[in-house]
Amino acid sequence: MEQIKRIQRTLKYKGAIVDVYSDTMQLPDGTTAEWDFVAHRKGAAAVVPVTSEGEILMVHQYRNALDRETIEIPAGARDSLTEDTKVCALRELEEETGYRAGKIEKLLSLKTTVAFCNEFIDVYLATELIPGKQNLDPEEFIDVHTYKLQELLDMIYAGTIQDSKTVAGVLAYYGKYGNRIEEKE
Amino acid sequence: MEQIKRIQRTLKYKGAIVDVYSDTMQLPDGTTAEWDFVAHRKGAAAVVPVTSEGEILMVHQYRNALDRETIEIPAGARDSLTEDTKVCALRELEEETGYRAGKIEKLLSLKTTVAFCNEFIDVYLATELIPGKQNLDPEEFIDVHTYKLQELLDMIYAGTIQDSKTVAGVLAYYGKYGNRIEEKE
């Protein structure tokens, strides 16, 4: 591949959770171009929480970027730049759903939108759920609902669920454990 | 769910492909908060292109937001706010890989990162591929490679492929047609 090189990065705006830059890129043909770079400050973790009945806990919440409610797997930003995403995933699961996980394993590492943003989300599978206490952040207003895996797959293929971490996380769980689940039913 | 309401939206920065706003939100407890909103101007389409041998065409390209090369399904922004994403998908497939598709069907509608951005990507499955002519945009420098589905699944679960549209698109293809593919092999 021919070499593309960043020759300058200029901060344009500091937001609440992202900083926005303009990158001056030197292209292989010798010309330069201005490309956007949206820096997500902390990275995030998300969880596919599966109950002992094989149902999946999902959160419904209002999203200002879409101006509507979404159905998502529980997720949240890291508390600090050094927080282990597994610790973050367990914390967000309990804060948003009130459940602790007896068992957790990594499913995926995602970059949400590589064309202009560095945000990453590590997605975990949480099982052996134990009831705890929901403890939302002051700016969080969330409802928790349970769904069967097949319901979520139908909603993904119908376009009712579109959030990329949720689509990728549920499909990754299905791809890895789907056959075993179907055998059980 | 309690009501969250946006009471103001202020433009903070106009970038090359995104505009950045600060949203003033009225929360159910009566307080206000400033939330980021990154508006992707055009939306995009992506394609999982499957050859008659069952292999998948992938593009390798440099991404400034990650400062490294990525492995992605072919994708690109719409030419205009009214372009049909299916038309966009067919165009981007041919521009980036040099192949036309005899058959195309919708796999997914994605919102890449709902916490702060409205970017959407419609993901299609393209089959019956016919060799055409690669025709990259002036700022595009892309290599095309083919992979077996199982190779891509391994790379996704190993974290080698992290791009969310690619992870979701490949897993959606596997979830919908995986059994049929395994029967053929």
Description:
- The structure is a homodimer of 185-residue chains.
- Chain A is α+β, with helices and mostly antiparallel strands and 185 residues long.
- Chain A has 2 domains: 5-40, no CATH class; 44-184, Nucleoside Triphosphate Pyrophosphohydrolase.
- The first copy, chain A, has 3 helices and 10 strands.
- In chain A, the strands form 3 sheets. The first copy, chain A, has a 4-stranded mixed beta sheet, sandwiched between helices. The first copy, chain A, has a 3-stranded antiparallel beta sheet with strand order 1-2-3, with no helix packed on it.
- In chain A, a hairpin with a 4-residue loop joins β5 (55-63) and β6 (68-72).
- The radius of gyration of chain A is 19 Å and the shape is elongated.
- The model of chain A has no long low-confidence stretch (mean pLDDT 93).
- Chains A and B meet through β1, β2, β3, β5 and β6 of A and β1, β2, β3, β5 and β6 of B.
From the spread of the alpha carbons, the general shape of chain A counts as elongated
Find the structural class of chain A using helix and strand composition. alpha+beta
Q: What is the rounded Rg of chain A? A: 19 Å
Please provide the count of β strands of chain A: 10
Most residues in contact, chain pair and counts? A-B, 72 and 71 residues
Distance between the termini of chain A: 49 Å
Give the SSE string of chain A.
EEEEEEEHEEEHH
Poorly predicted runs of 5 or more residues of chain A: none
Q: What is the helix tally of chain A?
A: 3
Helix content of chain A: 10-25%
Q: What's the story with the biggest beta sheet of chain A?
A: 4 strands, mixed
The top-level CATH class of the largest domain in chain A is Alpha Beta
CATH topology term of the largest domain in chain A? Nucleoside Triphosphate Pyrophosphohydrolase
